[in-house]
Sequence to fold (196 residues):
Amino acid sequence: MLGDLLQLARGDQIVADGVVLTADCLEIDESLLTGEAEPVAKAVGDGVLSGSAVVAGAGLVRASAVGSESFAQGLASEARRLNLVHSEPQSANNRILQLLTWAIVPVTGLLCWSQLSGRLGFADAVRGSVAGAANMVPEGLILLTSLAYGLGAVRLARRNLLVRELAADAVMAGPAPPGRCPQGPSDPILRTARGA
Fold:
């Protein structure tokens, strides 16, 4: 409940956001929420986040946000709301793959028919048709597209931009100055992680 006091000790999972009232060498692991690799030392007046864990010390915390108002629930609801971005290269690849998928079946049938009419045995004709159909699958297209997305993600990461999807490079409106988003961080998770 909001305002409840939580007694924390090493190994405890924090179940509500709160404010530290007393701290005895209290250290919290917030890596699952913020990505911070090292435990964070907490003093009186510092905030703690639900979903984090006590790795050292002990303390007393007053719950300031519970349930849907807590940080962890905000992350979970944001993750559920995440819509995948469709980029032009991704849409073009999907169209090509759909066309090839529909084309492979009749082309394989024609290939089998042409091999049967060339006096090959049924087993050899089927084998040749399957080999021909397997070569129609554009594995290189997928590989090159994935490689291009990966290189774009590396390029954006060098500019200190958070890449949440591989297609981020293709949907960027324009180049951003190093370390800055074009309109500032609009993502609530990013704003919280940066302390904005």
Q: What stands out?
A: The two ends are 27 Å apart (CA to CA). Strands lie at 5-9, 17-29, 40-41, 47-48, 53-65. Residues 91-137 form one domain. The chain has three domains: 5-79, 91-137, 139-196.
